[in-house]
Automatic annotation (TrEMBL):
Top-level taxonomic group: Bacteria
Name this polypeptide is given: Stage 0 sporulation protein A homolog
Species for this entry: Anaerocolumna cellulosilytica
MF terms in GO: DNA binding; phosphorelay response regulator activity
InterPro entries given in the database record: CheY-like_superfamily, LytR-like, LytTR_DNA-bd_dom, Sig_transdc_resp-reg_receiver
Signal sequence interval, chain numbering: none
UniProt function note: May play the central regulatory role in sporulation. It may be an element of the effector pathway responsible for the activation of sporulation genes in response to nutritional stress. Spo0A may act in concert with spo0H (a sigma factor) to control the expression of some genes that are critical to the sporulation process.
Transmembrane segments: none
PROSITE patterns from the UniProt entry: HTH_LYTTR, RESPONSE_REGULATORY
């Protein structure tokens, strides 16, 4: 299910965006859920409480907290969330460049520009969703999307995948798992641990702090490489 947030202090603007979003996803038969906010503080509270959204439509000029500040918080909290500015203030496009805003849509052109943006966006999201790891045993196949993996750790001859929904086990070495993942999103931080940089919120000395609140130790032999690669990832994605 695609989770969507709309933040605008004008109810008529929210209604217009909701109408276009609902028409698009209903016609494509794609499951979706829309949460709308006239008060930007309420939206900020929800994302700080780990309410996740795949797509956020933000107005820029709003009372309390403007769209630029909201986008900064979204990038720090959910680096895989797509942010679109629906605005009458296109002069802010340069300021928002460093925030990696997916698209700017003038309010006067919502009916023309928004469906095109959604078409391109869904293509990109669906491609991202295809990135997955398959756990194979003699009795089952289990698909785990890369974006859902927090970290992986070694437990004797098994590798344990820790995700938002729990843990999954595969009888395979951690080095073989890392090879099969074959993605720059994942980093070895210790002989027995792999983390998903998508969920790294902070590095504190020799600890990596993940989105789910877990702290993992980085070995002395990996610390410099881990810091370098996470900084590179943040520069590109945050």
């Amino acid at each position: 299910m695609i989770k969507i947030a709309i933040v605008d202090d004008v109810k008529a603007n929210i209604d217009c965006i909701e109408r276009e979003v609902e028409n698009f996803f209903s016609n494509k038969s794609i499951p979706f859920r829309v949460s709308s906010y006239e008060n930007s503080r309420n939206f900020l509270y929800d994302i700080q409480e780990n309410q996740y959204f795949d797509i956020c439509f933000l107005d820029i000029k709003m009372p309390n907290i403007d769209g630029i500040e909201l986008a900064k918080t979204i990038n720090k909290t959910f680096s895989d969330c797509y942010v679109l500015f629906i605005t009458s203030h296109m002069e802010y496009a340069i300021e928002g460049y460093e925030l990696h805003i997916y698209r700017y849509i003038p309010k006067t052109l919502i009916d023309k520009k928004l469906p095109i943006a959604l078409r391109d966006l869904i293509t990109e999201i669906m491609h991202r969703e295809k990135e997955s790891y398959i756990i194979k045993t003699h009795s089952r196949f289990e698909k785990i999307f890369y974006k859902d993996i927090y970290y992986i750790f070694k437990d004797r001859k098994n590798s344990i995948f820790v995700t938002a929904s729990g843990e999954s086990r595969e009888r395979k070495s951690i080095s073989d798992v890392y090879r099969d993942l074959n993605s720059d999103e994942f980093l070895i931080i210790d002989r027995g641990f792999i983390v998903n940089t998508l969920h790294v919120m902070k590095i504190n000395n020799n600890l990596v702090i993940l989105r789910n609140g877990i702290s993992l130790s980085i070995s002395r032999s990996h610390i410099n490489d881990v810091k370098k690669k996470i900084n590179q990832f943040w520069r590109v994605n945050v």
